[in-house]
Amino acid sequence: MSQTKAIAYEKPSNDVRNFRVFASVVLTVITVLTLLPIVLIVIASFTDETTLLANGYSFFPAKLSTDAYYYMVRQSSTILRAYGITILVTAVGTLGSIVLTTAIAYPMSRRDFRYRGALSFFVFFTMLFNGGVVSAYIMWTRIFSIRDTLFALIIPNYLMGAFNIFLVRNYYENAIPTALIESAQIDGATELTVFFRIMLPLAVPTIATVALFTALAYWNDWTNGLYYITDTSLYGIQNLLIRIMNNIQFLKSSSNAALLGTQTVDLPGTSVRMALAVIGILPILIIFPFAQKYFVKGVVLGAVKG
Amino acid sequence: MTAIAKKSRKGKYKLAKTGPLMMIALPGIIYLLINNYLPMFGVFLAFKDYSYMRGIFGSKWCGLDNFEFLFATKDAWIMTRNTLLYNAAFIVLGTVCSIFLAILIYELGEKRRVKIFQGSLMLPNLLSWVVVGFIVYAFLNADTGFVNNTILKATGGAPVSWYSTPGPWPWILILVYLWKFMGTNSIIYVSTIAGIDKSIFEAAQLDGASKWKQIMLITVPMLKSTVITLTLMSIGRIFYSDFGLFYQVPQNSGRLFDVTQTIDTYVYRGLMELNDVGMSAAAALYQSLVGFILVVAANALVRKIDSENALF
Questions:
Q1: Range B65-309 classified under CATH 1.10.3720.10
Q2: What CATH number did the domain enclosing A121 receive?
Q3: How near does any CA of chain B get to the CA of A78, in Å?
């Protein structure tokens, strides 16, 4: 009796160990396959241009070179400008988004606020129905004349969304005791004081999640630029990447192939493009390990309560 | 002082609070009014023969003409078919792959390893569609692409001009979708598995159930309600597609429109490339209306099955 029990107990523990090894091996393979495409463009950015054109993209290029990065330093004005615009737009947009989102979420979380239900529905309805990009485009360009201004990169679409508002509201409702607000009010604090001195500082863990998602959205956005920016001096890094891709394809398809042939040697086109993509994702790669926790939290909260 | 003053005028207690709270919410309300609500009223453009010269209000009404033209073209059928079929493939394959990953990640046990694997698998989701387009281009471009130059050379295949060959694109797009979202989508399943009562596994273990059996008979059935909820929510969004995936990844290549055109890319092209505002607005309204009905219906179903996770 005791023997069978011992066997029954030992067998699964072996099983668990085997499965753990299996899981590690399979996950390692999947993870390597997932990362390889990113590794490919990093290697391509360090590949000698003539080698790249002769042998194509490769994980083991015959000749490495840092020309692409030198070229970028020499051409730095365009690239730095685009980089600066992306940083500016991301910073201003994220900051503005946090202020607007936490501010509208606070009254929604107050059970004694008369228009709480109405306000929540007002926010919520934007998740159900939208007017679509056509009327939004006509509105922003015709009524607000937003085309070719920095506002076009900051204001449409990303400044505030129902999803983040509900994230913050739920946090206010569940994590901050009403008694705290009441006692502050008895001490004579106005609503504005309560918001800035209590609700905002206490919401930092959720604000971190919201800020992360918003910053990522701004950094990676190319659609606002696509719709509203024609002046290339206002291009952020993503739209600069699109323009470079289009130019190369245009040059390729045009009849100037001979001219292009002479130019490609001293103009490291392909590797520069990849180098530019690499600097485009570099900040994300650097920040992400520290922000992963908040990212995971946001995904879990969002999936449970969209 | 103020607190006493408020209390003495009990009738105005609520009103005194409404003002300041309203003020705090006001900037956000104004933003939503402009960014979200004004375009909703703008859908009337779908019933106008819009001209840039005459403007929003000056353009002539044309009834349902835009819709008649739209649905007379084969574009309407192609973009609807593509949007629905791709989403169906994403829902089915995405769910299966995410659950598979989640089970493996959960079985790792050790926190540090979970973090490394999970982080690496989430990485593609952090890249913009433009960069993803670059990566795909590095693999697929005809002259220097990795596939033509290395894989096909090694296997003796003839080089393919990928950006003008529609055939493989459904598979390419599905692969790119899974690559980008699988890791992130598995997070929710990892957290669901972590929430399962450990004593159930212990009891099964004592009864001699193998790890495989435990997964098939405990873990997977326990994920059922999460799967149903997430699937219904995706069905609610089945009329929408990821513009970046279908526009940036195929490099806007005209030869591929048959298999890459979705409602979102059609609306963009109509508006920005063909300057056909009326038709584009009609397609956008078609998407918004059907989308609205689907979201409400899907949510009603979620509410019936699992009211905790319903949107409303």
A1: yes
A2: 1.10.3720.10
A3: 18
